[in-house]
Amino acid sequence: MVDFTVAIPTYNGEHRLPEVLEQLRSQIISAPLSWEVLVINNNSQDGTAEVVKAFQANFPCPLRYYLETRQGAGFARKRAIEEAGSALVGFLDDDNLPDLNWVESAYQFAQQYPKAGAIASRIQGEFEVEPAAELKPILPFLAITERGTKPLQYNSSKRVFPPSAGLVVRRSVWLSHVPSHTILGGRANGNMLTGEDTEVLAHIARSGWEIWYNPAMVVKHKIPAWRLERDYLIPFFRGIGLSRCVTRMSGIKPWQRSVMLLAYLMNDLRKIIEHWLKYHHQFKTNLVAACQMELFMSSLWSPFYLWKMGYFNQSK
Predict the structure, then answer these.
(1) What are the tens digits of pLDDT across the range 231-280?
(2) Rg for the chain, CA atoms, rounded
(3) What H or E segment, with its residue span, contains residue 120?
(4) What is d(CA 90, CA 96) in angstroms, rounded to the nearest whole number?
């Protein structure tokens, strides 16, 4: 057993992964702390395996490599939980650059807050191109988490959860409370359906474990210019919306779901009508309004889409 595991799911990340591994190789560990790094190659078609092999020759802790052929970040994270040798697993995407004290800050926070089943990082955007001011309302959807300089506990009743980037979870909590077969697996084969991380956190919160934000765990999220363009953002928000039936229902007791589903559908319909009345002449020129409408409409369609596509019958 080790004290802390860093897990990096990656898909075709041979050009992004080296910078993440360099940040981890340079971690400053002042207290006695044993740790390891797992790279979960999510069926990449590039030289990811060779990149990891090169780093393994000179790395300050065990650097292990696994191939997960089931496509989707959700599958890669499950594989990391299975293979981790510690009680704490910290997830980094292959475009996440952790500060040099990230590992130690995560481990210490977990010791100070023993009821925390999951701990979120402070995620700052590192943009290739500075985003236009009008895009500010949708930037949090790009896995940017700025919630101040003091630790705070997420209120699970508000159904707001952090992204998986920079997230630390207690392995025993995941294994005890996250179903082995979840509905969402993550983006795969051009399908932008997402929300697999929110589904996991909803199960953790429903079990009574706390979810915290730790501003001392700072991660830079590298965001290329194309992720701020319409061709990416519209399908991106469509994927978020289409997953919402699952992410909304995961933390709700089964006997409440029929009533809550109807309430959500009515609320989504109200949002669509109000948004259309306010912005219907601007959807071609106002990218934020177009993204928000895509989100509202896809959220309304979500339960029907997931049922039609067989997601409720799949085992993951």
Answers:
(1) 999 999 999 999 999 988 887 888 899 999 999 999 999 999 999 999 99
(2) 19
(3) strand 116-127
(4) 12
Tokens at 273, concatenated? 């009508």
Q: How many CB atoms lie within 10 A of CB 56?
A: 15
> Tell me, what DSSP letter sits at residue 141?
G
Token pair listed for 114: 């023993």
Dihedral angle at the C-alpha atoms of 139, 144, 148, 154, nearest 10 degrees? 110
Is pLDDT of 33 > 80? yes
| Band (73; pLDDT cuts 50, 70, 90) | very high
Q: How far apart are CA 149 and CA 298, in angstroms?
A: 34
> Phi first, then psi: what are they for 104, rounded to 5°?
-65, -40
Q: Which residue has 């896809």 as its token pair?
A: 298
Cβ burial of 281 (10 Å; 0-12, 13-18, 19+) is exposed
Burial of 265: CB neighbours in 10 Å, binned 0-12, 13-18, 19+: middle
Say whether 123 sits in a helix, a strand or coil.
Answer: strand
Q: How far apart are CA 90 and CA 193, in angstroms?
A: 23
Residue among 166, 5, 19 at smallest CA distance from 92: 166
Residue showing tokens 């669509």: 272
